[in-house]
TrEMBL record:
GO MF annotation terms: structural constituent of ribosome
Family the entry assigns: Belongs to the universal ribosomal protein uS11 family.
HAMAP family assigned: Ribosomal_uS11 (MF_01310)
Source species: Abolboda macrostachya
Entry keyword set: Plastid, Ribonucleoprotein, Ribosomal protein
Pfam families: Ribosomal_S11 (PF00411)
GO cellular component: ribonucleoprotein complex; ribosome
Parts forming coiled coils: none
Protein name: Ribosomal protein S11
């Protein structure tokens, strides 16, 4: 009996995912943290505002409700700043999510010198008019 060759198992790749192009190395920049209740997005820009690198809890491999956790925000922050090679940064934090502090702690632990940390969460100055009360007859 002749031995059959084993079929090679090739890992299936997602068609939408392409490896990123080489990320620019910058010395100074701005790190934007947008923390919602469902996800945390970390964007690294240069001083002019051009996006150099970004990561989110979703792109870091977390699904569904785990994207809103502090640990997911920490992993996303490390992924966003890993390839950039920054030395100094300003940090802008936006949103009410759980990942705010965890992402900031991860950035601080990476060895980047933070010149300042600013909360840029939009706050309404008494905002939109609420809907009228429901009438009961």
């Amino acid at each position: 009996i002749k031995a059959m060759p084993r079929p090679r198992i090739v890992p299936r790749r997602n068609k939408r995912f392409r490896p990123r192009k080489n990320v620019r190395k910058i010395k100074k920049g701005v790190i934007h943290i947008q923390a919602s209740f469902n996800n945390t997005i970390i964007t690294v820009t240069d001083v002019q505002g051009q996006v150099v690198s970004w990561a989110s809890a979703g792109t870091s491999g977390f699904k569904r409700t785990r994207r809103g956790t502090p640990y997911a925000a920490q992993v996303a922050a490390v992924n966003a700043i890993r390839r950039v090679g920054m030395r100094r940064a300003k940090v802008m934090i936006k949103g009410p999510g759980l990942g705010r502090d965890a992402a900031l702690r991860a950035i601080y632990r990476s060895g980047i010198l933070l010149s300042f940390v600013r909360d840029v969460t939009p706050m309404p100055h008494n905002g939109c008019r609420p809907p009228k009360k429901r009438g009961f007859i």
